[in-house]
Amino acid sequence: PASSYRPTRQVDSLCPYCGVGCQVRYHVAGEGAAQRIVFAEGGDGPANAGRLCVKGRYGFTYSRNRERLTTPLIRRPEVPKGTVVDPAAPLTAFREASWDEALDAAAAGLLRIRHAHGPHALAGFGSAKGSNEEAYLFQKLVRTGFGTHNVDHCTRLCHASSVAALLEGIGSGAVSNPVRDVDFADVIIVIGANPAANHPVAASFIKNAVKGGNHEGQSGGNRGGAKLVLMDPRATPLARHAWRVLQFRADADVALLLSMACTIIEEGLTDADFIAARTEGFEAFRDAALNYPPERTAALTGIAAATVREVARAYARGPNSMILWGMGVSQHTHGTDNVRALIALALMTGQIGRRGTGLHPLRGQNNVQGASDAGLIPMMLPDYQKVADPAVRARFEALWQAPLAQTPGLTVVEIIDAACAGQIRGMYIEGENPAMSDPDLAHAREGLAKLEHLVVQDIFLTETAMFADVVLPASSLFEKGGSFTNTDRLVQLARPVLPLPGEARPDWWIIQEIARRMGLGWDYPGPGAVFDELVQAMPSHGGMSWAKLEAEGAIVAPKLAADAPSEPVLFQACFPTANGRGRFVAVAPLPAAELPDEDYPMVLITGRVLEHWHTGSMTRRAEVLDALDPDPWCAVHPADLARLGVATGGRVALQTRRGRIELEARADEGVRAGTVFMAFCYREAAANLLTQPALDPFGKIPEFKYCALRVEAVS
Ligand code: SF4
């Protein structure tokens, strides 16, 4: 009846998708278990000022999708792991269990492996879609209950190389300036990112910075006229608003950035005072950069020297210039070098430490910043405190009243490799989907199938859950309270909008129940108590408290003391490095790990699309979003399609050394000839069956943005 769609209450919470961290007002109808969100509108949050994109506005219905897991499940022994199961009919492979039976089985399997093979035979993937409290508890469980640092999450697949370079260069892995500082920038460089699809509200602020219309009433803002430079192998939608578009060859980014640095040095545009007062290591970087004048690299990058020089001059002269980047920068075997070069550009020109300047890695998931801060990283305890440092370990052993392993753990891809090799035998995966998100999926799925014991905690029977021994039905963002940290370092409070469906439980509760069954005497009454312990573990959050967060709704990190100011613009006077100086690191261009050849003459780039989110587990089950983009497709240059004899909308086969998929091809002049782009959200044609697992040696991030490809017409 129409009355069941009439909203009766409103709840202010957050968007479940990207790192922009939009606040949302949800309008809810119905009573009891029949409650549903009827519509959503943008809340007046610091990050979105009332704006939402299509995902935030229409993507909430997945929480009541009929495939939602509502009962704990245990695998039927006769069904082999990895058997493809209709997520709407999980009982073909699993049987229902009580919570006690499922939790007992989950913990017993992990304990059995720990006793038989030692703590390092276990590993856990936490979630960037969960709250800070859930991330904190998850890593604490792995470290103190499993007894290993084999804990990681999807940051390893997105910005791990950015974080590695930022910690090394400027002592902080987070952004220096919030997105909305673009309104104070004269030059905005967006490199290796497609914010129009992946951070759409951020893209709207970037467009306003070019056209005017941002930050009404805010001093210095609302002026428009910024020069937007888009640097990307694809001419993505922001290209329409750009002053210059540098559509460079997909593995030539380090060379391109070094050419910009070379121009700035050769033409005397460096900020000598800033370099002398605030940095170290410039000479070695300068000597390396001078080897790559734009005239020398043009053939490699595909960008005319005059264009590179023009952009380099504009960036250096600003007066205020800001760099935002995404996974086109980080997902390379030279991803850390890419970010080192970006840091060097900011340091050599003094374009950091003021409004409208700085470095902004656009974080992907809604809480990937917070999950990283909270310690879901194998070599870092909470707040990026190093596992290898005995003093750090001693502090955490005192706080947690538990001994810690002395050596850092394995990363995402290393854990899967170790599972394939029989070294990792048991895993606990909360809200991650490596059977879709990891590179070389045949290999990743082999590793998952080999596990003796796999516990998956999720809201749907994901491709990963199809390998599980025990499946634990968890909470969507709409059913949980907790803190989430957006790409701007803004810690925001999510509030429960809907009741949990069926027997699903909050993630923090499930993690605690497993911890108890593994011998840890946890007794957290709720997320607030977890957050108040988290701030003890994290000096950068030391001035926060749950009560303060409930009162204010959002607090900018770092917040070192209760009476310390929150500062959206970092590094105004110094960097949080040992000597307070930013560090140049010399880099040189390296080729991608797998180059085109006679058999595989083209290049595959993977990424995301506007309507879908990561592996599609949520957006493919959000009816409006799935209706907008229901089928797998790839973007191919019209000249390549003509050569193949395929019309736009026709089918092609994409084949690499690791796999083959078939899907629709769409003509797209925005991709370079010889290059194909596709998203990794389609389970029917999983892009990561094709990608290859070579890692950046520093960030341990796979090279999702480049592998050799063959394309064929399918009749
Ligand atoms: Fe949600 Fe990101 Fe869209 Fe905002 S920009 S509504 S956070 S997906």
UniProtKB/TrEMBL annotation:
GO terms for cellular component: membrane; oxidoreductase complex. One of its GO terms (molecular function) is 4 iron, 4 sulfur cluster binding. Keywords: 4Fe-4S, Iron, Iron-sulfur, Metal-binding, Oxidoreductase, Repeat. The keyword Plastid does not apply. It comes from the Bacteria. GO terms for biological process: ATP synthesis coupled electron transport; formate metabolic process. The keyword Transmembrane does not apply. Its cofactor is [2Fe-2S] cluster. In the C-terminal section; belongs to the prokaryotic molybdopterin-containing oxidoreductase family. This is Cytoplasmic molybdopterin oxidoreductase. It comes from Thauera chlorobenzoica. The chain holds residues 216 to 930 of 930 of the full protein.
